[in-house]
Each structure stands twice: as C-alpha cells, then as structure tokens.
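STRUCTURE:
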C-alpha cells in the first residue's frame, strides 16, 4: 500500500508520520495506512496553487465547466468503489455512502453549469458619457478545511464552486477519513489533466488541525471551514487578523416540534430518520424533540417501537440501517453525554448503551431520553451521535419558544397538520433552514445551505449563493 498521501504541486508525496486507519465496524481490519503532512508541505502547496491559479483564472468558462463535468461523471461512474471506501474507513452504511457520493456528483454537475453563467452587468452612469461594468473575479487561493462525517459531499460543495469561479485550492480534509480524500483528489487531478489544466492548482494534505489546518489558514486568501464551533471561532479570529474572508459551517442542536394534531406514527418515522440515521453524525440531525403534551405519550410509544426494530451493525452488511460511530473518541463522548443526561434527571426510554456485535466496533444503541428540560446539557450542546431528547411542552407557543432557546440555529422542523402553525413556525423559528413534515436532516444540492447564531458565519454555501464567497466584485468605469 502506498503511503504517498498528499497531492502537492501536481505530485503525490509522503508525509512525516504514519497514520493507520481501522475499520470502525471491525477494529481488527486495517482500512488503510497513510502519512501526515507537515507545515512545510502546506507551504509548498500554497506556493504551487498561487503559481497555477493565473492559468485557471484565464481559462474560458467552458473549460472550467468541462473540468467540473468530468469530475461529476467520474463520481457517478465510480460511486460503488468510493462508497466502499467511505463505508470501510468511516462507518457509513453502503446506502448512506452511495447517497453521499451521488450528491457530490450532482454538486459538481450543478457548478459545471454555474461556471457558464457567472453573472455580470453593464449599467449606465449618473454622469453623461460614462458606462459601468460590474464583474466578478476569483478570490485566489482558497483553503478548504472539511470534516469526516460527509467526506465527499462537504468537500465537493466547496471544491466545485471554488473551481467554477476560477480559484486554486489547498484542501485539508479530516485525518480520520484519508482514503476517500485520496480517491476524490485523484478524480479532480485527472479531470484537470484531461483538459490541459495545471494539476498544481488543486492540492490536498491530510494532517492534524492544529498543525496543518492552522498553517493553511495562515497562508491562503480565503478559508471555508466546516467543523466545531470552538475551532471555527479560532479560524474566524485569525482570518480577521489577516483581513481575509472566511466562511464557517459549525454545529447544531436542532429542534423538531411535534404538535398534538400530528399522526404519532408518521411523526415517529420522521423523528427516527432525523435523529438516528448516519449514527446521528450529521450537523442537521435532530437533537431535541419538542412534543406537545396531547401527543407526548403516543409519540414516545411509537418512537420506542420503531427504535427497537432498528438494525445497528457492520456498515458493509446489506441489512444494516445504522453503522458504528467514527471512533473511540466519539463513542466515549456520546456515552459521556448519556451519563450527563442521567445525572441531570433524564430517563432513558430506549438505548443508552454500547452494543456488542460479531465484530469489534464502535457500536452505540440509538438512545431516546424522556423527562428532559431545555436547560439540560444534552439539550444545550451538540452531542453528534445517535442520541435525542424529548421535551414536553404545553402548547405551540411554548414549543416555538423552546425551539428558539438555543445558541445554535442551523436546521429545525415542525410536524403538524395546521397550516396556521406551520406558516407561523417557518416565519419565526430562528434557524437558517426549516422543514415542514420532513426530517431536519436532508437538504438539496442546488439551494443555499447554512444557519444562524453559532451554527454559521459568513456567506451561504451551495446553490447560486456560493458565488458570494468564491468571487470578488469589481466595478469598472469607462468613458464612452
């Protein structure tokens, strides 16, 4: 197995320290061996990106579009191979991994079209004999720092618009999922080479955040980061000190409101999907189930019935619905939150324990707390695992107040047959995205993604909004 993990200046290179990745579904299986980059590798990558970016900037919009179209087709063509890599090193089920890679293919295809229609306008001046052109230019070298939970889709919704609008890239993916990052890099590099573009404009380095991530943040022209709130804050401060633009997508403690007029079974189906699929490791997952008193008992009964039937197991088995959490650190953190809930008076209605399976892995039973208040730690912080809490409320007004009583504001949802309450909720809930009779997790690739409060900072990702971060507006005057 090659240890040449990092793609720098158009070539693969080996890093300093060895990194062995174990299959979280079977710790006896080595998923792959890689190496960790250094700050010197980052310096070389940024220099290569700066040297190559003018060529890409000068490329026609059709050339950029064709490169992105090639990336899209490769993702679709190789989806089965890529899904197995993602499942083996990250614990995703094969259906979940296939869904993610398909979404990444759609993202690349969407921005292949956006590259062709980057907007600009010509305006008349208030002065006679003068015209004004308003155009968009690439920012330069973009630093992308991405997490392990969606190791293909999240990078692609940054990579694709960065390339579409003429930027070069230095990408620092999570060191927990290096194999899929290497595979994605090979696809991007091949697409650039096929169309005669310098591969050095796309660089990828696997490494720890405090060393490699920090070096990237300190050297590029803009930073797009998805990860924890604390890390995001440090990045925002550093970017402000350097006066470079920054885009942050951070955590969530997302509420799903269930009103008394809802069908308990349908509400439970939506809630189980929201809270537990992908082992709860989604920033848009439901953490708080805010349930009106009149449906509380029936809803909890429906939830526990459905949770008892969930199949947790090895990610590669065809009947598995929920795989393991990513690693021992995440499992320990999740179990710590469960202990915290019990200490603060919550009751476990389902799950709450580590699971034994035929293979050694990081398996956690999907967990449902009842008897919780919005002040409990499990309802204030992002658990990032298959854990959700029920908060009983008197009426819709209290439900809305509880939903908004959080430091986060990424996604939210309401389950109701009342159009009055649905419209009021969507207009007044303090979140960047909101769902009616749908899971809080699950968004389209062609519309804006992002939140408010501590969940997001800077311009939105995805859709046509992405151009705001990846381009700079220039206003040019000319005499006629």
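SEQUENCE:
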């Amino acid at each position: 197995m090659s240890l040449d993990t990092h793609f720098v200046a158009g070539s693969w290179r080996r890093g300093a320290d060895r990194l062995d990745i174990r299959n979280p579904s079977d710790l006896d299986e080595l998923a792959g061996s890689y190496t960790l980059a250094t700050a010197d590798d980052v310096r070389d990558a940024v220099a290569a990106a700066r040297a190559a970016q003018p060529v890409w900037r000068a490329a026609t919009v059709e050339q950029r579009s064709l490169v992105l179209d090639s990336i899209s087709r490769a993702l679709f063509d190789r989806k089965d191979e890529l899904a197995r890599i993602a499942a083996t090193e990250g614990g995703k089920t094969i259906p979940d991994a296939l869904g993610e890679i398909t979404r990444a293919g759609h993202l690349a295809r969407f921005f292949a079209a956006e590259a062709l229609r980057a907007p600009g306008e010509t305006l008349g001046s208030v002065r006679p004999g003068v015209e004004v052109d308003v155009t968009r230019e690439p920012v330069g070298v973009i630093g992308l720092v991405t997490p392990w939970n969606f190791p293909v889709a999240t990078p692609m919704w940054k990579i694709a618009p960065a390339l579409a609008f003429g930027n070069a890239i230095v990408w620092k993916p999570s060191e927990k999922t290096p194999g899929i990052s290497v595979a994605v890099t090979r696809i991007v590099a091949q697409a650039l080479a096929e169309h005669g573009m310098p591969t050095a404009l796309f660089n990828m380095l696997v490494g720890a955040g405090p060393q490699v991530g920090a070096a990237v943040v300190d050297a590029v022209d803009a930073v797009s980061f998805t990860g924890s709130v604390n890390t995001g804050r440090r990045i925002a401060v550093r970017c402000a000190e350097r006066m470079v633009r920054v885009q942050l997508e951070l955590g969530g403690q997302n509420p799903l409101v269930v009103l008394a007029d809802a069908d308990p079974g349908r509400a439970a189906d939506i809630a189980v999907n929201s809270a537990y699929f992908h082992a709860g490791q989604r920033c848009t997952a439901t953490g708080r189930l805010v349930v009106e008193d009149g449906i509380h008992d029936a809803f909890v009964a429906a939830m526990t019935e459905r949770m008892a039937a969930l199949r947790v197991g090895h990610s590669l088995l065809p009947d598995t619905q929920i795989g393991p959490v990513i690693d021992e650190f995440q499992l320990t953190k999740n179990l710590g939150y469960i202990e915290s809930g019990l200490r603060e008076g919550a009751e476990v209605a389902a799950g709450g324990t580590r699971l034994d399976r035929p293979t050694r892995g990081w398996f956690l039973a999907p967990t449902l707390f009842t008897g919780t208040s919005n002040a409990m730690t499990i309802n204030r912080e992002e658990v990032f695992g298959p854990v959700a809490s029920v908060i009983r409320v008197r009426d819709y007004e209290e439900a809305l107040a509880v939903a908004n009583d959080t430091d986060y504001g990424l996604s939210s949802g309401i389950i109701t047959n009342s159009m009055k309450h649905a419209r009021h909720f969507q207009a007044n809930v303090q979140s960047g995205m909101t769902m009616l009779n749908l899971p809080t997790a699950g968004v389209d690739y062609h519309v804006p993604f992002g939140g408010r409060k501590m969940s997001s900072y800077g311009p939105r990702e995805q859709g046509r909004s992405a151009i705001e971060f990846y381009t700079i507006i220039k206003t040019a005057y000319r005499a006629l």
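REMARK: Residues 6-249+446-479 form a domain with the Aldehyde Dehydrogenase; Chain A, domain 1 fold (CATH 3.40.605.10).
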